[in-house]
Every structure is written in C-alpha cells, then in structure tokens.
Amino acid sequence: MSRRKAMLIYNGNAGQKNIEKTLGMAVPILSQTIDELIIKPTKREDGAFHFCRHIGEDIDRLFILGGDGTVHDCINGISQLDEKPEIGILPGGTCNDFSRALEIPQNIEKAAEALVNGKTVSVDVLKTEDHYCLNFWGIGFITEASSGIKQTEKAVLGRISYFTSALRTISNLKPFPVKLSIDGEDLTDEAVMVLVLNGRFIGTNRIPLPAASIHDGKADVLICRNTNLAALKELFAMDDPEPESFKGELSYYQGKTIKVEPAEQMDADTDGEIRTRAPASIEVLNGHLRMLTPADREKS
C-alpha cells in the first residue's frame, strides 16, 4: 500500500501567534487522511511559487493556507507541471475569493474538515502568455483600485480597505478605447473596466453572472463603460440575471480565447496581483487543476 504524502504551504511572514493558532487547528485534521505532512513556511516574496514549481511528484496533495495572493503564487508554480497534486485551499487571507467559489467554509477548522472529507473536482485556469490566474484578469478600474490599497490600511481594515481604495479611484476614472476578440469575434468599445472571470467572487462580493462556471472551459467577459460604476452596483444587486439584462453601460460575453487590446499599454490585475500587462491574449485551460471541495458542493 502506497503512503500518502502532502505539503502545507503558508505565509511565513504572517504574525507568529496567529499562525501558530491556525496551524494548531488545521494540522491535526489534515493529518487524519495522510501518512506524511510536510509544512513549508514561505521566507521570501516568491517563496510559494518556488515551493510549488519544484514540488516532488510524490506529493499527492498540496494544502495552501493563505489569501488570494498566496493561492495565486502557488497556482503559477503548479500549473507549469506535468504531474500536479490535488489542491486544497485553507482560507487565511483578507478576501479568499476563489475558496468562496469552491464553497469552502471560511473558518479554518471547518475548512480543514470539509477538505479531508470532501471530493476532488477539475477546475479551469486562465492563462496569459506565461502567467496563470485562477479567479480573474482585469484592466482599468480593478487594477487602479488594487494599486491604491495601502498596506497599513489593509492590515487595520481588512477587506474594507478594498472599498476605501475604490472610492479614491472612482473620481479619477476615465474611459479608455479597447479592442476585443472573443473566440474570433471582434468588437471595439470604450470602457472603464474589462474583466475576464473564471471565479464568481471579487472582494468577497458574488458576481451573479448567468451560466458562469469554473468547470465549463469558458471565461466570463464583463465590460463596464460607466465612470460612476452605477451599472456595476446594479449588477451586484441582481439575482442571477439573464443575458439580456446586460445592456447600456454593461456588456457580458463568454469565450475560450480572449484578446484584449487597449489603445495604450496598461497594467493588468490577476487575482489581485499586478504582475502582467495588456494588450494580452487569455486562454481558458479546461480542467487544468484538481481541487478539493466540500462533499455537498453542487457543481457550478
């Protein structure tokens, strides 16, 4: 009988007292279903990426304890491998958006229980050039709001810091011309934000897009034109709107390959990290990763 081996990666720069408490809750539960658990704290900014890029083929499961940034770094390391372990996310950050799409409990102890007693599902990944993202790729307002977050503010206010940054950003928003190609269909528009989504949450807010799924091999493309973001506020208030609901200041598309070409080069936000730029070509890698979810999660 083969031994089951797992690795747990967490942010080594987090507060020592908090992380000891969190590990104390999670590790005994995770250890119930495996023979060996290797615990790896990150020591540098790209530590999670390097741990995952060079993870051994004998690792059956990778547990990621952290927020969206740590998950993003791990996904970029894992996605390049031929043999990939199953991945379980233990939400330990500010927003934990993709863990919400997987319906993982936001309490660490309950999350660990859900993962070890859960099931494995295949999940899509977005790829742009040599970079991967799990939740979203975006330009315009989303990037400016992410760039404007003050770390001192984030430490004190948590997810509210995203809203305070957004409020500072709105007054400076200007529409930009952009060309898009979605599965070969070309369109030209003016926008304050273009979002290419795999997940369904941003900043803990659920985006109620029709037919959105993390398993279908398609990305959801959202174009917002209004500088006061009234249309986006209306979208968040909708309850599973139909495609015809998207008109006026908001457009919605789906596609497997998306090209986004603003008139000028722009920074792009991937899962809350500003690491790439537009123009960009985005491809959906269908079922690229195997991830752990609660056993009672409905496929969506």
From TrEMBL:
Cofactor: Mg(2+)
Keywords, ordered alphabetically: ATP-binding, Kinase, Lipid biosynthesis, Lipid metabolism, Nucleotide-binding, Phospholipid biosynthesis, Phospholipid metabolism, Transferase
One Gene Ontology cellular component: plasma membrane
PROSITE patterns in the cross-refs: DAGK (PS50146)
Pfam families documented for this protein: DAGK_cat, YegS_C
Gene Ontology molecular functions: ATP binding; ATP-dependent diacylglycerol kinase activity
Transmembrane segments: none
Single biological process term from Gene Ontology: phospholipid biosynthetic process
Top-rank taxon, per record: Bacteria
UniProt domain DAGKc: residue ranges: 1-132
Matches recorded under NCBIfam families: YegS/Rv2252/BmrU family lipid kinase
Family: Belongs to the diacylglycerol/lipid kinase family.
Name this polypeptide is given: Lipid kinase
Species: Bacillus swezeyi
Lineage: Bacteria, Bacillati, Bacillota, Bacilli, Bacillales
